[in-house]
Amino acid sequence: MVKEAAVPSTGQTWTQPGMDGIGNVAVKCPKCKEILYGRDWEKNLRVCSRCDFHFKLTAYARIELLVDRGSFVELDADIISIDPLNFVSRSQPYTAKLGEEQNTTNLHEAVVSGHATIEKKPLALAVMDFRFIGGSMGSVVGEKITRTIELGIERRIPVLIVSASGGARMQEGLYSLMQMVKTSAALAKLGEAKIPYFSLLTDPTVGGVTASFATLGDVIIAEPGALVGFAGPRVIEGFMHTKLPEGVVSSEFALQHGMIDTVIHRRDLRYELGRLLNLYF
Amino acid sequence: MPYDLEFEKPLVELEKKMHALQRKGDHLKADERVQLQHMERELRWRTEEIYKNLTSWQTVQVARHKDRPYAADYIRLLCDDFFELHGDRVFGDDHAVMAGPAKLDGQKVMLICQQKGRDTKEKVFRNFGISHPEGYRKAHRLMQQAEKFGLPVICLIDTSGASPALEDEERGQAEAIAANLYLMARLQVPILAVVIGEGGSGGALAISVADRILMLEHSIYAVASPEAAASILWRDTSFAPQAAEAMRISARELHRLGLIDGLVPEPLGGAHRNHRLAATNLKAVLLKHLAELKQLSLDELLEKRYRKFRTIGKHGKSVGSNMLRANT
Question: Across the interface, which of B202, B305, B315 has its CB nearest the CB of A79?
């Protein structure tokens, strides 16, 4: 793992589910409230050993989990966001927000991209990281994802995109919205080149990302229990003025309604992706 | 039509005085007639002054004006003929989207429009222009048909957004939008998209992947509604005006940023003051762009469309570890 060391060991008490949490003695499962020993939890790929709740993963942890050891080569790591609109909200300039996020996550942006192999099969991949401004898609996320797709076309290798996003990034206004088109247009070209695209949805994947590349996969996979949908539950409840039943807008709900192909447990992902790569390419 | 928007208040008094004089009709004295002419001139330039300098939030109010011409008005005023087609062939018919073949100045086109609805009854029928997945799938079906018959596609956009209800999740709202982006990116006929009022996020984008993105002068196009952005970034919807300014959602600002390809001039004081003139302006702009696009070969058309979206975005490069920002 080229960049694994770059993820900081916070050494702090774990507070937020699915956030960094490296080096914690213990974590509490937000679903079943079980106390999980940090080392066991890590060994179990950050899945609750009691109820199978899948915690969020950082992009680098996700890559390590998915690809053959040492095969990942990161590309475009030096692309960073600028502030095209001079955006300020609650007297915080967007540039300050970016700096803050870069410091706390030690990431340049909400996506890490490059190429690797899975079960010795080469592929281009982009992995989103929800910690960075909610995995929101602005110009840089759109650009890196598009370049990943273009790498697939150029080298004629399959593309895997792992989504974790709250949607388009409001601080970049219409630039963000247009990234939905940019990525989808690149996928249309990938499709013309007859190269397969696999989309993996992780907790949470909503908004502009679901309404573009995330739902355009030849095969769409989701992790169990992930929040997956066009709108998040709060938006739906606000719009409908009703309370939603438990568990809607999830991977299982999407599977039941024919929106995705399959739900796969985290420990089986690498193996199953390997099978798919073999079947498609 | 009376001035009824908040920022038009300075005009109301003047207009009242004018009307008082006008009511006298033939009984006007000579000096009153001169006075009236002066007033008319003053009203004109003051309206011009106000509308030249609309803020983003003021533009939002014009774009959402209850008397603003809607898609159906433009269809009636623009087209020689329009045959509305219904249904997505999967689940149902979405009344927020009106679509079908049309003739514009003798040219055959495929029209796809979002219609908000004028009175309460129509608003409910049209779901306030808020589309379900069926609307986008109807558009998808008819765009494929347009490709089959070689018809240019014209989309008129006017929606606050795509419907985020539970039923829309069940029927795949996200997929319906994504599928349109994918199709339109490579559709083998010219596509024109015009935001005539509100361009609300993904719900607008789903029929806006075009060779030319045009906007009426006082329309808006945003990644999220000002209210939604305010509630997320300011945690208070009353900050919608600030959110509107910060996101730069007015047609003029977007044109300045190079994010859209052209503006359609509106009648003085907004399109709602003169539907017919608004439609005439729109028609002229549509015909001009259609003629230009028809000059391109298919390969040129598709390559230009791809490059257009491929190059949207601003980013920098980090230098060393302190992530210095440089424009590219």
Answer: B315
Task: Check: CB of residue B29 under 8 Å from CB of residue B54.
Answer: no
Could you tell me the CA-to-CA distances from A265 to A54, A130, A269, B97, B192 in Å, in that order?
Answer: 9, 19, 6, 40, 44
CA distances to A21, A236, B101, B161, B206 from B132, rounded to whole Å, are 40, 13, 21, 10, 12
Number of CB atoms found within 10 A of residue B175's CB:
23
The ipTM estimated for the assembled molecules is 0.94
Burial A248-262 (b: 16+ CB within 10 A, else e): bbbbbbbbeeebbbe
- Tell me if chain A has a CB within 8 Å of the CB of B201: yes
- The pLDDT tens digits of the residues spanning A25-39 come to 899 999 999 999 999
Question: Is-contact B7 B58, C-beta < 8 A?
Answer: yes
Are B169 and A249 in contact (CB < 8 Å)?
yes
* Nearest C-alpha in A relative to B204: A177
pLDDT digits (tens, 9 = 90+) for B56-110: 999 999 999 999 999 999 999 999 999 999 999 999 999 999 999 999 999 999 9
Residues of chain B numbered 217-246 and touching chain A (CB < 8 Å): 221-224, 229, 232-234, 242-243, 246
A140 touches chain B (CB under 8 A): yes
Cβ pair B6, B50 in contact under 8 A? no
Q: Collect all residues of chain B within an 8 Å Cβ-Cβ radius of residue A216.
A: 178-179, 182
pLDDT in tens, A196-250: 999 999 999 999 999 999 999 999 999 999 999 999 888 898 889 989 888 889 9
Return the axis-axis angle of helices B173-186 and B133-149, rounded to nearest 10°: 20
Closest Cα in chain B to A176 = B223
Q: Residues of B with CB below 8 A from A145's CB? A: none
A residues 194..233 contacting B (CB < 8 A): 207-208, 210-216, 229-231
Say how many C-beta atoms besides its own lie within 10 A of residue A118's C-beta: 25
- For A148-181, give the DSSP string: HHHHHHHHT--EEEEEEE-SB-GGGHHHHHHHHH
Q: Cβ–Cβ of B169/A248 closer than 8 Å?
A: yes
Residue for token pair 């193996």: A271
Helices (H) then strands (E): counts for chain A:
8, 12
Q: Provide the 3-class DSSP secondary structure of residue B6.
A: helix
Whether chain B has a CB inside 8 Å of the CB on A75: the answer is no
pTM here is 0.93
Residue A22: other Cβ atoms inside 10 A: 16
Write the CB contacts of A119 (distance below 8 Å, at least 6 apart in sequence).
A68, A270, A271, A273, A274, A277, A278
CA distance A49 to chain B (A): 30
With CA atoms as reference, report the closest residue to B189 among B153, B228, B221: B153
Q: From the CA of B32, how many Å to the nearest CA of chain A?
A: 50
Bridge partners of B212?
A: B192
The amino acid present at A117, given as its one-letter code, is: T
Rounded CA separation B15/B19 (Å): 6
Does A173 sit within 8 Å of B223, measured CB to CB? yes
- Collapsing DSSP to helix, strand or coil, A1 comes out as coil
